[in-house]
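Colleagues,

For the teaching module next term, I've prepared a clean inverse folding example: a structure given as tokens, and then the sequence designed for it. I'd like students to try predicting residues themselves before seeing the answer, so please don't circulate the second half yet.
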């Protein structure tokens, strides 16, 4: 019987892509999904020709894993994770490792780490960042939990993670041990909160350029393209450039037709709540969360716009000087946001006794 290096439960797109990524790096993965047909579909399509092993039960999955067994959950946060842990505990044994790769709340991860460790097993709660594309070709991975588990998952996680080039020609994996119990999911939460801030900052810069200077979409594309080649280089600046340049079928900028309402998944809100609990002034991230909440009041804003009027704002002076100043302001704002995030890390480490790897 073939043995697998790691098991993964949950074959939505993120789970599938992580499995294929692990396979690309030479690891044999056993997979299971609550809807059994999804296992067979995956093996017949996306995973065809790979060494991925399909199973039709948790018992079968755990039976073909190399010991100590490693099982990663890529499922919906909340009760499904608790249910899966209880099911796995029926088939795993002391020294085995359960890994939660979903967007769980760090409080849940702290509770689960203590629970799983009380049964003699090891637990990891890890943030996985980069979306579907990152999962397939190299995510950022933020593991925390039982320290003894790290050496047992490190080879797999660092192999599949994104890589950054060092000045000496080598490379580092975008994955290292974060800290104890809920630390991994805490860092992922704050990471997501900072991302909220980055998006708000970018949108405010866009508004100043479009309404303050009255620039066209083509001019905005050029500016964001130039910014993406300097200190502001990032995925968010890059896709902002691409979105601004995208044309609808009638040749007009598609961005003008997108509803100005932003949704949220909750991690930004969690970050704000954590900051309030710790008394840390995470002003930039919290204002970004409020910005999304304000955007959702579409009916109220539309009604107010019919009643309230005022001058069309225009920025006077040399446009090129303003654009250079705005670039520096955006850069400075990002530094402030990241600094506030690290202030929150420091407070959390003190509160929970974590040895965070800053």
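(Answer key — instructors only)
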């Amino acid at each position: 019987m073939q043995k697998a290096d790691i098991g993964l439960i949950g074959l939505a797109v993120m789970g599938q892509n992580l499995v294929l990524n692990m396979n690309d790096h030479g690891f044999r993965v056993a997979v299971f999904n609550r809807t059994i047909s999804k296992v067979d579909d995956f093996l017949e399509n996306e995973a065809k020709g790979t060494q991925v092993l399909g199973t039709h039960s948790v018992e079968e999955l755990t039976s073909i894993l190399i010991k100590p067994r490693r099982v990663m959950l890529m499922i919906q946060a909340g009760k499904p994770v608790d249910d899966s842990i209880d099911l796995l505990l029926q088939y795993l044994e002391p020294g085995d490792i359960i890994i939660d790769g979903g967007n769980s709340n760090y409080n849940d991860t702290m509770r689960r780490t203590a629970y799983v460790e009380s049964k003699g097993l090891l637990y990891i709660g890890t943030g996985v960042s980069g979306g579907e594309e990152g999962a397939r070709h190299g995510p950022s991975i933020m593991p925390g939990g039982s320290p003894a588990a790290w050496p047992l998952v490190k080879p797999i996680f660092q192999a599949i993670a994104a890589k950054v080039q060092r000045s000496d020609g080598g490379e580092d994996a975008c994955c290292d041990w974060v800290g104890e119990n809920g630390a991994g999911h805490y860092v992922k939460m704050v990471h997501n909160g900072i991302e909220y801030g980055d998006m708000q900052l970018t949108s405010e810069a866009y508004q100043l350029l479009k309404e303050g200077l009255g620039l066209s979409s083509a001019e905005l594309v050029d500016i964001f393209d130039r910014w993406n080649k300097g200190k502001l280089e990032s995925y968010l600046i890059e896709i902002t450039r691409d979105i601004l340049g995208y044309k609808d079928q009638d040749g007009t900028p598609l961005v003008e037709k997108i509803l100005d309402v932003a949704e949220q998944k909750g991690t930004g809100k969690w970050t704000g709540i954590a900051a309030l609990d710790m008394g840390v002034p995470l002003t930039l991230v919290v204002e970004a969360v409020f910005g999304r909440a304000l955007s959702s009041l579409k009916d109220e804003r539309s009604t107010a716009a019919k009643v309230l009027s005022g001058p069309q704002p225009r920025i006077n002076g040399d446009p090129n000087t303003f654009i250079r100043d705005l670039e520096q302001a955006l850069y400075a704002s990002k530094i402030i946001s990241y600094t506030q995030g690290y202030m929150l890390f420091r407070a959390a480490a003190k509160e929970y006794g974590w040895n965070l790897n800053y």
